[in-house]
Design a protein that fits this description.
Blueprint lengths: L9 H15 L3 E2 L5 E3 H5 L11 E4 L5 E4 L4 H6 L8 E13 L6 E13 L3 H18 L3 E7 H11 L3 H12 L3 H10 L4 H12 L1 E2 L1 H9 L5 H19 L6 E4 L10 E9 L7 E5 L1 H6 L5 E8 L15 E6 L5 H13 L4 E4 L8 E6 L5
Parallel strand pairs: 1-5, 7-9, 13-14, 13-15
Antiparallel strand pairs: 2-4, 3-4, 5-6, 6-12, 7-10, 8-9, 10-11, 11-12
Helix pairs in contact: 1-4, 4-10, 5-8, 5-10, 6-7, 7-8, 9-10
Length: 366
Amino acid sequence: MDKFDLVLSSDEKAVYALRSIYKNYGYEQYRMSKFEEYDLYAKNKDFLVSESVITFTDTDGKLMALKPDVTLSIIKNNKDVKDDVKKVYYNEHVYRVSKGTRSFKEIMQVGLECLGKVDEYLITEVLLLAKKSLGVISNQNVLDVSHLGIVKGVLNYLGISKKGCDKIFECLKEKNREGVVLVCASEGLDQEKINIAEKLVTVYGAPEKVIPELEKLNLSEEIGSAIDSLKRVIGALKTFGVNENINIDFSVVSDLNYYNGFIFKGFVSGIPTAVLSGGEYDNLMVKMGRKDKAIGFAVYLDGLDKLSAPSNELDVDVAIEYNDASLNEVCALVNKLVAGGEKVIAKSKLPATVTYKKLITLKKGE
């Protein structure tokens, strides 16, 4: 057993492993302060995982926020660099409403961002690192990849209104085929066009299965270009030896005010919600006055407690109930056991909930 396994929680071990992976691909650590002006988050609330933000008034009267997000700070504090790319990773505590408790919680978030001249190699690299990140958390994982260029292209080709597009996006998130049909019908589309829209819900699975189906939707230059890009990037992932448990899934959609192109979510067995989320967010860059392109992802570690050891695993190897035994005797025994690699708990009276392999009861004079 590694000595760190004795003292690090599951999320702490994940942080160390993820940092090592990102450094190996040339990412530099980004550090931010705990506070940013609230205005930064207020203008981009729809981009945040949770709209709830903890605020306070600084000594100079400015309304400040306890950071709920790192990406916005990275964009704000980095300038456009012509013909170059800024590659950063971070592991920062953010403060937001936890999905599990519905109350504010300090959450360790790890992620990376590429800002600048983002090309298909960098998109491929980010997807690769997303898949590797999932592997750190669990061997049983899947990365669902979508491309907003294809979704947007299909909806533009069909001539669906802005209101109709918003409704279809909601239906896609829920994989609601009937809902898509109803929206298309209300937009006056004929059956042939409705069938095209349905494809966005029904095509799902491994790239070698889905991409040939998508190529049948090459109805416009916009759609064709997005499909070709998806095909190239997925093919490049295979060069890295990554071709298992990657699905194309158009239920992965995000706000077009912020995102474009590739978007993706990562899942692991045992956690019902995504533990990783990311994509290209050129539109957010424009909104924040930037000319650069951008892509990145975040890993949410607040759900890792659901991946705790199986219920039949014991709390400790040895439990010591020392009653009124001498202090030196208790210390000597604990030191001996821990030095020998045992996991130990010592209390004057052990609670009934503690589980152990071996119980040692010390009494005065023994």
